[in-house]
Design a protein that fits this description.
9 strands, three-stranded parallel sheet, 8 helices, alpha/beta, single chain, elongated, 212 residues
Length: 212
């Protein structure tokens, strides 16, 4: 019931890569739905277990035909907890399908815990160079009440672009998926910064609904 303006802050560019080597891999780690799309574009493998950071990534994996999908329903910390509970260090390597930029220290935690962690970059998220004319107009004319931010990188991009456009966001509320997102958003002044109770889309949308 909340009207919205869509403002792309990143564009996803798939890498021209061969299918990754899956020998000795016990599970795939997916930290975004883009990772799912990138993987299925280069590989027919669907039987390996998938451990996804959140429900959106898990749904994308299930829709792509993966047979065994589990969701951490949270952030990278939640994913590391799920992996440590479900998988053994000696049963094979963990292959993280990722972009050129990654949030959190998934590699550090898993390697420290004794897992054989590997990451393969299959896509790149390029930052937008400017806000759309519609987005600029909506902020200038104060027809918006809030901005919904899903990741630290998109928050950082938004802050940079409103600065370049000379826009004032002090009448807007920033709705942030997590504290990490909010930390990036707070580089500029807002009317209010609200962090979702849990780092998932359902909680983020609920935070918006409760504010109107």
């Amino acid at each position: 019931g909340v009207s919205a303006v869509i403002e792309p802050l990143l564009s996803i560019e798939m890498s021209q890569s061969d299918a990754p080597d899956l020998s000795g891999v016990q599970a795939l780690l997916l930290t975004s739905a883009n990772g799912v799309r990138a993987f299925v574009g280069v590989s027919d493998e669907r039987r390996l277990p998938v451990y996804a950071v959140g429900d959106a990534s898990a749904r994308a994996a299930a829709q792509a035909g993966f047979e065994n999908v589990e969701s951490a329903s949270g952030d990278v910390d939640a994913l590391t907890d799920l992996v440590s509970k479900k998988l053994k260090t000696g049963d094979g390597s963990l292959l993280h399908i990722a972009g050129s930029k990654v949030a959190g220290d998934l590699a550090g935690f898993l390697c420290k815990a004794g897992y054989d962690y590997r990451r393969v970059q299959l896509y790149h998220a390029a930052r937008a160079m400017a806000l759309s004319p519609e987005g600029v107009s909506a902020i200038k004319n104060a027809t918006l009440e809030g901005v919904v931010l899903y990741s630290p990188r998109t928050a950082e991009s938004f802050v940079d672009l409103v600065g370049k456009a000379g826009l004032d966001c002090r009448f807007l509320t920033a709705f942030c998926l997590s504290k990490a997102v909010a930390n990036k958003a707070r580089a500029i002044d807002w009317k209010k910064v609200i962090v979702a109770n849990t780092p998932d889309q359902a909680a983020l949308i609920k935070s918006v609904q409760e504010s109107f």
